[in-house]
Amino acid sequence: MIDTDWQYILLMRHGRTRANEVVVEETNSHFYSVSGSDQEIELDSKGELQTTWIGMLLALLFPASLRPITRICASKFRRVAQSTERVTAELGYVPAVSTDDRLSKRSYGELWNVSYKGLEELYPGEHELFIALGPLLYRPPGGENYYDLFDRTDSFYITELLEALSDNILVLTHLVVMLALMRHLDGLTDEEVVRMYNEMALPNGCVRIYRRRRNTRGPWEFYAQFAPPID
User: Fold this and answer.
1) Torsion-angle region of residue 100: left (phi > 0), alpha (psi -120 to 50) or beta?
2) This prediction's pTM
3) Residue 54 CB neighbour total at 10 angstroms
4) Cβ(10)–Cβ(207) under 8 Å?
5) pLDDT per position as a tens digit, 38-47
6) Which terminus of the chain is more exposed, N or C, with fewer CB under 10 A?
């Protein structure tokens, strides 16, 4: 049972997309088999089921009559917007929803759809730079490195999570953003963020819940983690 003396932060990864599947499959191609733009990729049928299941769970854990989720902060990506819609449809009440560019997935710029083989064979200069700098420092053309991501997620954590005194907030976003915020919430190192991202350590639809005493600025503590039984 959720104790009303506590304030809660929830980090949620969006539901599954076809792109989530193709990036973990072995490929001999220079490009992954997704088209369009990263921002417009949509949930697949399993992603829809995952987010509906999580919405039903959150309706039980955070009912309107006891300790509702008062705010949802989400990235502007289509798959996140769809996940937000499906979660809120199950809650039975409507939290305030806002979008925030600081919650966007790390940008790979011109290389967003390029496989590692494609990087090595089509962009040998970029591949050499990636090897020289390492995964944390390497910035793709027109994209971000991990420290660019950390700068904006740090800003979000400070202004939206650390300073929030009473709201229960659901942050609906991408795996890499969750891991970046977990540097503050769980003490992950930068290297652990890279490793856990490469391992896809948190499944689609996963929710991690943290809490602290209401009306304090004390540290957040881990409370629970749930993942939909749909993969």
Assistant:
1) beta
2) 0.94
3) 28
4) yes
5) 889 999 999 9
6) N
